[in-house]
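PROTEIN–LIGAND DATA SHEET

This sheet pairs a single protein chain with one bound small molecule, flavin mononucleotide, given as SMILES. Inputs appear in the order they were entered. The predicted three-dimensional arrangement of chain and ligand is reported afterwards as a token string under its own label.
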Amino acid sequence: MAIVNRFEEVNPRRRRYGGRDVGKARTIDDLRCMARRRLPNFLYEYIEGGAEDEWTLRNNRAAFHRYRFLPHALRDVSRRTTEHPIFGRPSALPLVIAPTGFAGFFWPDGDMMLAKAAAAAGVPMAQSTVSNARVRDVAAVAGLRHWAQFYAWGGLEVQDALLDRAAAAGSEALVVTVDGPLSGNREWDQRSYAAPDRPSAATLFEAAWHPRWWLRMLARRRLPNFENLVDLIGATNPDIFAVSKWIGANQNPALCWRDLERIRARWPRRLVIKGLLRAEDALRAAGLGADAIVLSNHGGRQAEPAASPLETLPDVRAAVGDRLSLFLDSGVRRGSDIAMALALGADGVLVGRATLYGLAAGGEAGVGRALEILRTEFDRVLALVGATRPAELDRNLLLPAAQA
Ligand SMILES: Cc1cc2nc3c(=O)[nH]c(=O)nc-3n(C[C@H](O)[C@H](O)[C@H](O)COP(=O)(O)O)c2cc1C
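PREDICTION REPORTED AS:
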């Protein structure tokens, strides 16, 4: 990450905050330091790592450094708003919490903590198929705009049950993730395990040095499970390892556009396709009636090395025009990243790790802090580039760094 974190070169005595008070975290990177200290390494590695040599992961951040703002001066920016419509309804920020699995291991009831913080901050949250809470419980969080993420795993009975549950829970949108015909090759994550269902001795030894994490988990009395799959896989009371094994055997490398048409026909509300990078795929998504796509390389966790969504965004926007909403994720850590994505044509961003760092650092308060940091930074960037609202961000504000 040398390309991003050069703070120490300016002054070697600089230190990020890694203590226990989320209120003292100034940046998402502070929350990341806190998460690293609080979590057993195998869990931190699961959040942090990318596939293989992690070129994609690094490039996701580097892509945001290939542009510079060219601010407008002397515009009255004293009255600003960060509010922006998502699917025609106001959102406090052009931001959605991305679907992420295993949240219940980072903090007890982690999915509920993400949902409550999202509702309090006035932004939507997408709940993963492999979350550790039931869709209906998370969707019931007061004031939450709930999106349900969907992996088309297993047979049609399993898929239809997942779709019907999300519909019954009142989810505003279904997010179909399509960049995982197989799991990415996350070798650093794999090293934590002696077998797919067995942490290594070194992993357990290291985890023993995190007593506070153990106490929080033990207070819950049982290991988190994949609550949305547990009753669908045809086993009696399967534990998380049994469900993981089922997932491994039931991924769907055959998934194709025909399946998306079927999902479109069955799903009654907003349909979002997540994990596209190509303009022709975005056009095809628009053609089948998707309401939005998320340009994403899954935070560098799948194809390696893959293009960064920020790199493909201008071409995709040019191809699809206004036919659907265009979101982007992978690498968003700053308010300026949100501004840059909007200036290049996105309607909003998703954040995965940024809010997970907050969750691991301090539960709901930590997620709230992450969202507050991003909101404050985004608001400041608006002012500094001469804009009063997100809709004023456009391509004219950016200079490609190579020409700077
Ligand atoms: C720990 C972790 C778990 C994830 N689980 C899922 C998931 O279950 N479903 C999904 O569609 N994407 C999943 N993702 C990908 C995120 O939705 C999102 O695309 C990615 O995190 C964006 O990159 P960022 O972390 O740099 O913000 C996961 C990402 C992380 C970091």
